[in-house]
Amino acid sequence: MNRKMIRSSRYAISLVLGIITLPFSFHTAFGARTVTLKPINGKVITVIVDGKNLSYYLLSKTNPIKLEIDGPAKIKIQTRLSIPVQYSTIEKYSIKVSEKDKVIKLQSTSSEKSDASYNNSKFIPGKIRKFTLEVPEGTHTYEFSLENTNLTEAVLKFNSISKSKKGKKDRITLEPLSYDKVVTTFIKEKLLTYYVCSKERNVQLRIIGPTRLQTTLRLNFDATMKGTQPYAISIYEEGERVLLKPLSTTKSLGINYEGWKDVVPGKTNKIFLDVPRGEHTYIFILEETAARSVSLTFSIPKSDLDNED
After folding, report:
1. How far apart are CA 195 and CA 23, in angstroms?
2. Are 161 and 262 in contact (CB under 8 A)?
3. For 286-305, what is the mean pLDDT?
4. Which residues pair with 187 in a beta bridge?
5. Long-range CB pairs of 261-266, under 8 A, 24+ apart, other chains included
6. Average pLDDT for residues 42-49, to the nearest whole number?
7. CA nearest 195: which of 206, 184, 211?
């Protein structure tokens, strides 16, 4: 890569962190990031253990719990079967984890009544059972279902420890050659810059490989768009499509663009493109959506700045 370009303002150094659906408090332990996760749905249930109030999420046979998370990560799931007071036997149950109708994991276990209690419930919490789930790279939406039991409810609690790749380095952000407009937003007190790809004007990016390009996207919702919205991103080089990625998202909560109030940013999606050796100019096109635009950021590993023209 041209050394003058390295010094250019087109490249702003930024540390790329995995983004969970919503911002939650976390602490650092042995270099890993431990996060308490909030699912997309699920009523909060208070479990009282040794006088302490702990928050779990209600899982019933008729209402699975959905959880969105960015990988790579490792989810720790704590489960408690809700057992009627009159029961005195050990009860079997399973937690099924699926993604897009594919069963990722079926965790079967058994439990009995514990010394814990619910706040205002006819049930007794079962003894705690735990299992883990490895989350691969990318954004995933998992559905948790209660299976293989005659009982109707359980409660779940989610925690995640983000996995750091061995030898992982900082990433740098790239500024595209052309775009519709630049927008900014504050997330966790940090100013983030996005480049808008609209139906009227595509985004064009010059990059030198070999490297792996990460593109973070936020679909822009107007007042007519409700619920989950599908969209797709096509990437072209010299008139040939090198990637078509169907995606979907919902509105973000509490996130807005500075000075652009006509739209609401969607929750983030990420796509990856392995860039071959040499110079490449990619064109990003928004397709298959009612939205008029999508906001993009681009990043590569900092170590790949050593690539030469």
Report:
1. 23
2. no
3. 92
4. 190
5. 262/222, 263/220, 263/221, 263/222, 263/293, 264/220, 264/221, 265/185, 265/218, 265/219, 265/220, 265/221, 265/295, 266/218, 266/219, 266/220, 266/221, 266/229
6. 93
7. 184
Can you give the pLDDT at residue 34?
58
Q: Are 282 and 236 in contact (CB under 8 A)?
A: yes
What three-state secondary structure class fits 38? coil
Tokens at 257, concatenated = 């663009």
CATH code linked to domain 3-15+170-306 = 2.60.120
User: Can you tell me the mean pLDDT for 213-221?
Assistant: 96
Query: Which tokens belong to 16?
Result: 């790329």
Candidates 204, 53, 104, 82; CA nearest to 151 is 82
pLDDT in tens, 221-267: 999 999 999 999 999 999 999 999 999 999 998 889 999 999 999 99
Average pLDDT of the segment spanning 87-96: 95
26-162 CATH choice from 1.25.40, 1.10.8, 2.60.120, 1.10.167: 2.60.120
| pLDDT, mean over the chain | 85
Q: What is the mean pLDDT of residues 59-72?
A: 91
Two structure tokens written together for 158: 């989610």
Report the C-alpha gap between 233 and 244 in whole angstroms.
Answer: 6
Residue 181 DSSP SS3: strand
Q: Could you give the CA distance from residue 144 to residue 308 in angstroms, rounded to a whole number?
A: 47
According to CATH, where is 2.60.120 located in the chain? Answer: 3-15+170-306, 26-162
Q: What is the pLDDT of residue 307?
A: 62
Contact present, 186 and 264 (Cβ < 8 Å): no
Structure tokens at 51: 């006088």
What pLDDT is recorded for position 183? 94
Cα–Cα dist 196/292, whole Å = 10
pLDDT at residue 27 is higher than 60: no
Q: What share of the chain is helix, strand, coil (3-state, %, to 5)?
A: 5, 65, 35
Q: How many CB atoms lie within 10 A of CB 183?
A: 22
